[in-house]
Design goal:
Layout lengths: L7 E10 L5 E10 L6 E5 L5 E4 L2 E3 L6 E5 L7 E7 L5 E7 L7 E4 L14 H15 L20 E3 L4 E4 L2 E2 L5 E5 L5 E3 L4 E10 L3 E9 L2 E11 L6 E2 L4 E5 L9 E8 L2 E3 L9
Parallel strand pairs: 9-11
Antiparallel strand pairs: 1-2, 2-3, 3-6, 4-5, 4-7, 7-8, 10-13, 11-12, 13-20, 14-19, 15-16, 15-18, 16-17, 17-19, 17-20, 20-21
Length: 274
């Protein structure tokens, strides 16, 4: 069962010292969960610039911004922003560490641990396509909406879990799995633009990526069918695909993933608990 974390909704009235030695008030709003794997949405006064650990963030005209912290992120993070008057502000963020399910399996045939050599070129090509789709930096702000579950069904896999096969740690699971029969509808969890749809990738089978703006994207794996194509704009709740059992799977399910740029995040932190 997924652990519950306290939802963070901060409205911080912060005071810094201005050029004349007088306190200057400013407001920072953060929305998200202060834990590893979380997507955190924020707002500052319009005209501000924002940095996370010296990394410059996109900021909308309304002052909206977003950032994500990965599975094994450092627990100490630092936000800095400069308002329209040139005044600098900062906020230290302390994250909660998470524990993940680790499963150790021994005695497997080598073919079950590593892919055969003849498919490595295909896998590299798949990875290039996914990386290109996730490199989109669209200015839309659909990421700021409340996300919905993209499919109905029991949760069969959780974010951050990992298998160690014959003593070799494999890549952690970076999504949440929803078990459901082939043909079950998949809906857009938030609005956005379709940046990729490939019917058959080696590992992930039918693969779709929807960009929600500011480097936030949803990825859907193992699809049996897609109803939209690359370049289509979709609305939240729109049917975009069907669940399948394509790629390297043992049964039909949807693997839903969330990315902020190169950070792989936990989709379950964005939607109501089941």
């Amino acid at each position: 069962m997924r652990k519950c974390y306290v939802l963070l909704v901060l409205q911080l009235l912060l005071f810094s010292v201005g050029s004349q030695g007088q306190p200057v008030a400013d407001e920072l709003v953060l929305r998200g969960q202060l834990t590893q794997g979380s997507l955190i949405r924020g707002k500052v006064p319009p005209g501000s610039q924002v940095w996370l650990n010296e990394r410059s963030l996109q900021v909308s005209r309304q002052g909206l911004f977003v950032f994500g912290v990965g599975r094994d992120a450092q627990l100490n993070q630092r936000l800095k922003w400069t308002d329209s008057q040139g005044q600098s502000h900062h906020q230290n963020i302390q994250l909660i560490a998470r524990e993940y399910d680790i499963q150790r399996i021994e005695g497997l045939a080598q073919s079950m641990v590593s892919p055969p050599q003849e498919v490595l070129k295909r896998i590299r090509n798949d990875n290039v396509q996914v990386a290109q789709a996730r490199s989109l930096r669209d200015g839309r702000t659909d990421f700021s909406d409340e996300f919905i579950w993209p499919a109905a069904g029991p949760i069969s896999g959780v974010y951050g879990s990992q298998r160690v096969l014959n003593g070799q740690p494999k890549r952690p699971h970076y999504g949440v799995d929803v078990a459901a029969p082939t043909g079950t509808p998949v809906y857009a969890p938030a609005g956005g633009i379709v940046s990729l749809f490939v019917p058959d990738m080696y590992y992930s089978g039918g693969t779709m990526i929807i960009d929600h703006g500011f480097a936030v994207s949803s990825t859907f794996l193992h699809l049996s069918k897609g109803y939209v194509k690359t370049g289509d704009v979709v609305k939240q709740g729109q049917r975009v695909a069907e669940i399948g059992a394509t790629g390297r799977v043992t049964g039909a399910h949807l693997d839903w993933r969330i990315n902020w740029a190169d950070q792989r995040l936990d989709p379950a932190l964005l939607v109501p608990s089941r």
